[in-house]
Specification:
about 250 residues; alpha/beta; Rossmann fold; about 45% helix; about 15% strand
Length: about 250
């Protein structure tokens, strides 16, 4: 990865990425490591994949860490481990989450269990991570939190009504936390459209391509497209906080 050299003071020393074993999280971990950050790759159940990600990162000091974002005890253990290993945290990227596809019109199919699980993983989980890691983030200066949201929060079109509602909550939470955590911590949402990953079960590359052809930029968003937006928030948008950054090929238009 080449380009304009980033001043050393702008490089976060320690970053944690939940959902780091694949997709957007994996791409973000790679970008952070390439800058010189020590990256904690958080994972839920796919330990082997997370360790594979860590093994492929540039630099040193990286580790894979089990973090169940719906379990406060697991999060507390992660805080203690990061504190012991690094004594600080400069960047938290909330990328962990999950969705169960349910057609929007199928209100009966969107059961309470699916709704609650979706909100727990995509909204409560990121908040629980922020709440727990706030003390470590406040130890340094220039810390940043980036929540991976979805353009579904804005368009009302997504894998399920629960998912788009949860992501709308993430965007609202981002704005509120930016006020609460200022001036020590900047907070952002990065809001992609359909990304070329396996996040949504059953969604094919062909479906993504057909959707992309109707967008202003006519391009399928990649994990690295989103990762570069995350890095921009952390490194470049030092006079911004509480904003939602679309990475959607113009879909919101």
């Amino acid at each position: 990865m080449t380009g304009i050299e980033i001043p050393a003071l702008s490089i976060p020393k320690v970053a944690l990425v939940t959902g780091g074993s694949s997709g957007i999280g994996k791409a973000t971990a790679a970008r952070l490591a390439a800058m010189g950050s020590a990256v904690v790759v958080g994972y839920n159940s796919r330990r082997a994949l997370a360790e594979e990600v860590v093994g492929g990162l540039q630099g040193s000091g990286h580790l894979a860490m089990s973090i169940a974002i719906d379990d406060q005890a697991s999060i507390a253990e992660a805080v203690a481990a990061v504190d012991k290993q690094h004594g600080r945290l400069d960047v938290l990227v909330n990328c962990g989450g999950a969705t169960t596809p349910v057609p929007a019109a199928d209100l009966q199919g969107l059961t309470d269990d699916i709704f609650d699980r979706t909100v727990t993983l995509n909204l409560r989980g990121p908040f629980a991570m922020v709440r727990a890691f706030r003390p470590l983030l406040e130890r340094g200066s220039g810390a940043a939190i980036v929540n991976i949201s979805s353009i579904a929060a804005r368009t009302g079109l997504g894998s399920s009504l629960a998912y788009l509602a949860a992501k709308a909550g993430v965007d609202a939470l981002t704005i509120a936390l930016a006020k609460v955590l200022a001036p020590r911590i900047r907070v952002f949402s990065v809001s992609p459209a359909g990304v070329d990953t396996d996040f949504v079960a059953g969604r094919t590359r062909e479906q993504l391509q057909k959707t992309a052809e109707r967008m202003p930029l006519a391009h399928v968003t990649t994990s690295d497209d989103v990762a570069r937006a995350v890095i921009a928030c952390i490194v470049n948008l030092t006079s911004s906080t509480g904003i939602v950054v679309p990475v959607d090929e113009g879909r919101h238009l």
